[in-house]
């Protein structure tokens, strides 16, 4: 029983497993916080600035698709890691076709992971900008006196053409409470968590790249190992066929 347990433990790709856990946690937190953050942003524009934003729902659906896609990719890379670890590698990649297929699959996943890393770096940069914007808005809520308006006319490029200057101001009363406490404060927390989770996903993708590169090398070395085994087998066969009188 103990030997079987040890054999199973040697077949577990721990590095890929850690990367998969990081990826799933990061993507899960990212999708949840971004969905909530975009919902708060939509309500902020609708109820505070009287603007109708129609592109938020497609973006939220994109987050769900990204989450499912990243989860599937992580499971596939984990499966490749299992095939490239321990005794499983010796059985699966015993033939020439198996080794070629394994190296091709590792190379394809390395390319996909590299492109996804660039995409998540871009998303990380965008989230930093959004988080900074909400943090500045929160500082304005704290520092601007209640009897004065928070003026966003300097950010006219963020508003649709035709928006009046009055609609770009947040003045005292229920509108300011709605803007500061209900939306800006909560949305800031959501986008901070989304930024941290995006960084965690980037770390997991870099980890995946290292694991796939190592698996590619292991499969390539497996070919050399099989060649050495064949040479040794041929040598032993030749030695066994020689007459014993020669020794």
From TrEMBL:
GO biological processes: neuron projection development
Output this protein's name: Neuronal membrane glycoprotein M6-b
Query: From what superkingdom does this record's organism come?
Result: Eukaryota
- Transmembrane regions: 12-35, 61-83, 104-137, 189-216
Alphabetized, the UniProt keywords read: Membrane, Transmembrane, Transmembrane helix
Any one GO CC term of the record: plasma membrane
Question: Which organism does this sequence originate in?
Answer: Scylla paramamosain (Mud crab)
